From TrEMBL:
It comes from the Eukaryota. It comes from Lithospermum erythrorhizon (Purple gromwell). PANTHER family: REVERSE TRANSCRIPTASE ZINC-BINDING DOMAIN-CONTAINING PROTEIN (PTHR33116:SF80), REVERSE TRANSCRIPTASE ZINC-BINDING DOMAIN-CONTAINING PROTEIN-RELATED-RELATED (PTHR33116). This is Uncharacterized protein.
Length: 204
């Protein structure tokens, strides 16, 4: 659920006044900076809230449990999750998930197994989704659909991509006997980490 701006402002104002015994000496955002940046290493309510909002989206995109499969089937059957719409009739759960979508999608990367992720809309190269470079592409094609008998079928994409991107694709390999694995790019081990997410999101 989105934190109301009035609640966030009131909490930060109250804590700042308590910290400085009545009269704040500096902005709360400065107080929340790390020690080496001149702050007191406190945590911003807004940045904490945003960090927690992106985690459920990552969990859903992992497709690792019945809940995520249900949500994807219900709300993303027609469109890719990154482009699925939100309607007034949709559940509060879905609406809250989507609040963290834009921030979360920036940090997702698929480690290819069988290549079931979207060729255009998922990040499976080291440059992010190809659709970021070719916005007219709508997706709907899986990576493994342009791979046949151990070779890339470049007639599908060679006239659409730059030579650099074609070369990147043709230097990428995957194992059709393995599952694709979703990684969180902010963490060294690829697992979701609140610590690394907060550090990236926090106001600098």
């Amino acid at each position: 659920m989105k934190m109301p701006e009035t609640v966030k402002s009131k909490l930060e104002s109250t804590l700042n006044k308590f910290l400085w015994d009545g009269t704040p000496w500096c902005k709360w955002s400065k107080v929340c900076a790390p020690y080496d940046e001149g702050g007191l290493n406190m945590r911003s309510f807004q940045d904490i809230h945003t960090s927690f909002m992106v985690k459920p989206w990552f969990r859903m995109r992992e497709i690792a449990c019945l809940w995520s499969k249900f949500m994807l089937d219900k709300y993303c059957r027609v469109h890719h999750p990154s482009r699925a719409a939100v309607h007034p009739s949709h559940s509060r759960v879905w609406k809250n998930l989507v609040r963290g979508r834009d921030e979360a999608e920036k940090h997702l990367h698929w480690q290819l197994g069988h290549g079931g992720c979207d060729f255009w809309l998922d990040s499976w190269l080291n440059i992010g989704p190809l659709a970021d470079f070719y916005p007219n592409q709508r997706g709907g094609i899986k990576v493994n659909q342009v791979w046949h008998q151990g070779k890339w079928q470049n007639q599908y994409y060679r006239d659409l991509l730059t030579p650099e991107h074609v070369a990147m694709i043709e230097n990428t390999f995957f194992d059709p006997d393995m599952e694709d694995k979703l990684l969180w790019k902010l963490s060294p081990d690829g697992a979701f980490s609140f610590k690394h997410t907060y550090e990236d999101i926090r106001e600098k």
